[in-house]
Amino acid sequence: MAERQERTAPDAVLTRIGQVVMLHHAGDREEARRRLLDLWAEIGEHGEPLHRCTLAHYLADTQDDPSDELAWDLRALSAADEAEEADGAEGAVGLRGFYPSLHLNLAADYVKLGRTEAARSHLHRARGAATALGDDGYGDGVRAAISRLALRLENDGDPGSDSWGPPRQRPE
Q: In terms of pTM, does the model score above 0.85?
C-alpha cells in the first residue's frame, strides 16, 4: 500500500517547476529564469534525472542566447538518457513523452545557430520518438511543431523565427 501511495503522491520538485513555468507563461521570463536557476542549484547536477531533465527543458526556454538555450536542452537530453541507462525502460517511462520535444528543441536550437545538419539529425530523432506521444493536445502540438520545423528546413526558411517551436508542458 505504501509503495502505491509513493507512486501516486505528487512530486514536490515537479510541482515547484510547474509553478515557475506558469510564471514564465504569464510573461515574467526573468523571474522565471531566476527561480529555475535557484531550483537547479538546489537539486544539483546529480539530482534525480527526471527533475534535472524537466528543469533544464524549461530553463532552456528562458535563455536569451541561442547557445545557452542549446546548452540547457543538451542537459535535459543527457538527464533523460541517464535515467534510461540507469533504470532501463521502466526508468524512462516518465521521460518517454519528453523525447520528441527534447529532440525537437535541439533541432530548433541548431537551426537558430545555423547548424542545419545537426538540426536535421535531431528532427529525425524527434519524428522517431513521436510514436510515444498520445493522441491529445500535447502530442498533437509536438507533432505539428515537428512538421512545421521540417517544412522550414526543407524551404531553408528564416532561422530567426521561433513560431515552429514545440509546446512546453509536461506530458501526462
A: no
